[in-house]
Every structure is written in C-alpha cells, then in structure tokens.
Amino acid sequence: MTTALTVRTEELSVRFAGVPALDRLDLRLAPGKIHGLLGRNGSGKSTLAATLAGFRRPDAGRVLIEGGDLGAAQEPYENAIVTSRVGLIRESGDVPDSVPVKHAVRLAAALRPYWDADLAAELLDRFEIPLNKKIQKLSRGKKSALGVVLGLAGRAPLTIFDESYLGMDVPSRNLFYDMLLADYAEVPRTIVLSTHLVNEVSTMLEEVVILDKGRLVTQSPVDALRGRGASIVGPAAAVDEFTAGFTVLAEERLGGTKSTTVLGDLDPALLGQATAAGLEVGPVGLQDLFVHLTGAQS
Ligand SMILES: Nc1ncnc2c1ncn2[C@@H]1O[C@H](COP(=O)(O)OP(=O)(O)OP(=O)(O)O)[C@@H](O)[C@H]1O
C-alpha cells in the first residue's frame, strides 16, 4: 500500500557558478495532493524537482521528506530509502537507451518498491509502446510516454513529473492526464506536475507553487488563487463600466460580448451590482493569474 509523503524545504538554495537557481525557498507540499509547479523558462522548476528527488545537494538550506513508511523527516540526498520512494520523471528519460523497452521496465520494477506490474502492462498497451524495440529507436513522443508509464506504474509515494510529457501529442497527453487521475484516485500519493502549460493541467491541480527567477512567488490552494480575481462577462459597454477601477489581467471580445479578467476581491455588494448590470461573474483563470504573477506575456 502506497502512503503519500510530505515535503518541506527550509531556506533551500541551489546555485550554479554562484548564480542562484533556487533562492531561499520555504515550501510545504501537503501529502496526497496534486501540486502544480509553475514557472517560466529558467525559473528553477527542474532544479527544484531534481533537488527534491535527491539528485542534487542543496548549497544551503535543506529538503525534508516525511510520512508514510519513512516516518520522521529525512533528507533525500544520498539517501537510498528516500530516493526509492521518490519518482522523478524527466523528459530525458533517465534510462539507458541502448536497451529494449522491456529491460527498462524490468529495471524500474526492481528499483521501485510500490511497482504495479498490471498497471505497467495496461499502460504500455494503451500508449502503444513496443516492448522489444530499443529505446533509442522510439520516437520522441513514445520515449516520453515510456517515462510516463514508468512513473505511473512506479506508484512512488512522491511522484514528480518534470515536463516529462511535453514531447507527447495532445491525445497522448490527455491519456496521461486521464490515467494519472484514475490511478491517483485508486492509490493516493503526492504528485508534482512541473509545467508551463498551465491551462492544460489547471483542472487537475489542487495546490500551486509558482516560481520566478528561483524565488517563491506564491504557494496556495488553487481555489484560493482563483479567488484573487474574477472574470466578468457580458455586454462590452457594461463590462467596461464595471471593471473601470480594477487591475485588468486579460480581455477578450467576441462581437458585442466581452470577457474581462480582473484582480481583486469582489465583495457581495459588488457581486450584486454586477448581477444587476446583467453581468456574469466567474473565477479567474489560472493561466491569467500565472501570467500576471510572473510578468510573462501570454
Ligand atoms: N547544470 C546547470 N549548469 C548551469 N546552470 C544551470 C544548470 N541547470 C540549470 N541552470 C540554470 O538555473 C536556472 C534554473 O534552471 P531550471 O532548468 O531549473 O529552470 P526551469 O524552470 O526548469 O526551466 P525550463 O522551463 O526552461 O525547463 C536557469 O538560469 C538555468 O540556466
């Protein structure tokens, strides 16, 4: 039985040639949730993922992983007990690619204490990955899919997908999201999805960590983040009048109808005004907030 792990970082810093890739991060990833690790290119997502998985030693501060069958908090670096329970799936694959797929599957089965062979067989079949083909002969998408299969079937109590599915086409990515959600419902574990495809994963996420230039921008439950703003939809003139005093994150127009995303709290009085003006008020999109918080261009 897999048991989810809790992750904490304390003042975690990682530097390359003196330049910080992670800068004094204090995080807590609650057990048994799907966390989005979001950030623009170079914001430190891969460095954080590798450090959580024990692939990299912090330059300062520390990573602590606890709970499940690990018990008390332990640091992952050079710790075989912890690293066998943490699955990091990167696009590079991290498997020797001169061997056939079935060898990589056997190796993963031997290394992963919670490996599920039936799930692996089902996933290899669903993603149409040929068992006898050498990994180096697989297409980029199939290589990514193999990484995803090994990551899901490993059922590691902390499983981190570091943009490992980006090489896959849309139907394959959708299959990955469906299989992840189905298996997570059956065997809860702590999942981290590192990505900049915010829209694609936003409905799956329960918690979000946003990095920018190695710093923590925010860590928050998704619902709380969505509550930081609102989208106002209705006749363009009425939307413009209502949103005049707000910080606008995004605007979209279709004929006479407009949708404007604003930052700020809409109290009941304002919500009443919006309804009276014939406007619809919805939660803010995660992508719009991400763009705003990281200064990215959509
Ligand atoms: N091995 C390395 N040597 C030197 N600098 C590195 C190394 N790995 C990462 N960096 C630097 O650390 C910073 C963070 O990189 P990182 O790969 O963690 O970001 P990321 O958010 O995963 O980016 P992306 O979305 O582009 O994959 C960047 O400035 C990058 O250039």
Describe the protein's architecture and organization.
Keywords: ATP-binding, Nucleotide-binding. This is ABC-2 type transport system ATP-binding protein. Pfam families: ABC_tran (PF00005). It comes from Kribbella aluminosa. Residues 7-238 form the ABC transporter domain. It is a single chain. The protein is an alpha/beta fold and 298 residues long. The protein folds into two domains: 6-224, P-loop containing nucleotide triphosphate hydrolases (Rossmann fold), CATH 3.40.50; 227-294, Alpha-Beta Plaits, CATH 3.30.70.240. The protein has eleven helices and 14 strands. The strands form three sheets. It has a six-stranded mixed beta sheet with strand order 6-7-8-3-9-10, sandwiched between helices. The chain has a four-stranded antiparallel beta sheet with strand order 2-1-4-5, with helices on one face. The two termini are 42 Å apart. The relative contact order is 0.15. The model has no long low-confidence stretch (mean pLDDT 92). The structure holds adenosine-5'-triphosphate (ATP). The site of adenosine-5'-triphosphate (ATP) has 11 residues, from helix 1.
